[in-house]
Amino acid sequence: LCKKIKSLREAAYRQQHGRCYYCNVAMWLDCPTELGVCTPSIKASTRLRCTAEHIQARTDGGKNSRGNIVAACAHCNRTRHRRRVPLAADSFAGYVVRRLAANRWHPPWVRDRGLLE
Ligand SMILES: [Zn+2]
């Protein structure tokens, strides 16, 4: 990860009070223990790792700039970009909100540990 993206990710993380841009889950930057709760396993906690998410995808010419990078949990980031043509950020945000409302975004332990509020 280049230095610039790393610093943009950290700035976005602070600006968003450590919450995912899409699903509002509590994220960790350097170590899962930052969550302050026990997670089922190290592997399970990786979905809540803070990543630099490009609002306009790099493949669409999106830049590594402050205005184009938000902090998103690894699960949201990887799910959005798994599609060959990713949904636009606002469409994806709507999709995540609907899935959250149906309890179909994160596994139960995430809510049970109070990480979704
Ligand atoms: Zn998320």
Biggest sheet: strands, sense, closure? 2 strands, antiparallel
Number of strands: 2
Oligomeric state as shown: single chain
State the low-pLDDT regions, or none. none
Number of helices: 5
Strand content: 5-15%
**Mass-distribution shape:** globular
Mean pLDDT comes to 95
Explain what the structure shows.
The protein is mainly alpha-helical and 117 residues long. 38% of the residues lie in helices and 9% in strands. It is built from five helices and two strands. It has helices spanning 3-15, 42-45, 74-82, 89-101, 108-112; strands spanning 50-54, 69-73. A two-stranded antiparallel ribbon has the order 1-2. It is globular and about 40 Å long. 30% of the residues are buried. The chain binds zinc ion. The site of zinc ion (ZN) has 8 residues, from β2 and α3.
Which terms would index this structure?
117 residues, two-stranded antiparallel sheet, mainly alpha, 5 helices, globular, binds zinc ion
Secondary structure: elements and pairs:
Blueprint: H1 3-15, H2 42-45, E1 50-54, E2 69-73, H3 74-82, H4 89-101, H5 108-112
Antiparallel strand pairs: 1-2
This protein binds zinc ion.
Question: What can be said about this structure in brief?
Answer:
The protein is mostly helical and 117 residues long. It contains five helices and two strands; from the N terminus they run H-H-E-E-H-H-H.
